[in-house]
Amino acid sequence: MQTRLIILVVAIVMLVACRNESPSKTAAAHAPSVAVNVVPAVSREWPNLYEATGTVRARTAAVLSAKVMSYVREVRVSEGDRVRAGQLLIALDARDLEANRLRAEAGLEEARAALPEAENVIAAAKAQLELARLTHGRMSDMFEKKSISNQEYDESVARLGSALANYEVALSKSRQVKARIAQAEQAFSEAVVARSYSQITAPFDGVVTQRSVDPGSLATPGAPLLIVEREGAFRLEVQVEESLLGSIWPGLPVKVALDALEQPVAARVSEIVPAVDPDSRSYTVKISLPPSPLVRSGMFGRAAFPRGSRRVLTVPAGAIIQRGQLQSVMVADNGVARMRLVTTGQLRDSQVEVFSGLTEGETLIYPVPVGLTDGTLVKVRP
After folding, report:
1. pTM as predicted
2. What domain range includes position 71?
3. 266-313 pLDDT, tens per residue?
4. Crossing angle between the packed helical segments 95-144 and 150-196, to the nearest 10 degrees
5. Do 131 and 155 lie in a common domain?
């Protein structure tokens, strides 16, 4: 009788326990498992990088301006046009310059026209000098023989001196004529060069990146008219902290990321400006970029400088679930999906650095099935 009473009490307790069991737990216990794939959280050796930002600039750029004051007669290019070395880009009003060239040319012709006359004078003076020398020679012989008087001899000496003086004068006048010709040639050359200033040409093959002049504008010396950049030769100029001056050198390989390019590109440091900006306490590092038709001057860029390595915990970037400002992952814990809040760092090669929320070796559910929630039963695929 006592044994039957005990069995009855146990049965009543079990019945009450079954009735008080949570319906959700009962349903979860009988819910089908979701098949998932898992990957472990892995500790990796990552290079330690210092990132600096900067601007893309053309390695070679020319600011074209006028050398003379004149009105712009014609502009033959627009922004974005490709030009060839020596191509005419801007034509200025050259009427005054052409008048000066013609005037200088006429002066040169006039100076040259005086040269034959001067040479004829020299020839005549030279002939007179030779005659005077011969006459003086004969008169000297006759004077020694007492055949002529002292006066006649003195007259021959005077005629020789006069002929010599005339010859020297003729030579001097010829030198003056030649000097005037040289001055006229110099003036003509300067006028020709000044005339060429009315045509502004491309200094090299490149692209017009800026145009700030239109026909009819007054071009003044030094005022920018066009900017031409050599195509395909660009570099990224970034500002680096002065404390890193000793760890960066020309030829150092770096990774450069530009918004116009899908992937970071390999580049090298080409130049370091050693002067430090006293305001920002930084200096400029110039990085040569590989040729690309997508790169333009003025683009924003980021350069990653290597600085040793460090050990980090990484997971696939696709395993991170982003909800507002919160980041989480789903892990498989004894056949049950559990959500873990995590803090992440750098993204590199489809892997993301995890600072907190996970330990090495934990199994993450990846890819995360749609609708998977915390507490769902899961079955790991082999």
Report:
1. 0.55
2. 66-90+200-229
3. 999 999 988 888 888 899 999 999 888 888 888 999 999 988 888 899
4. 160
5. yes
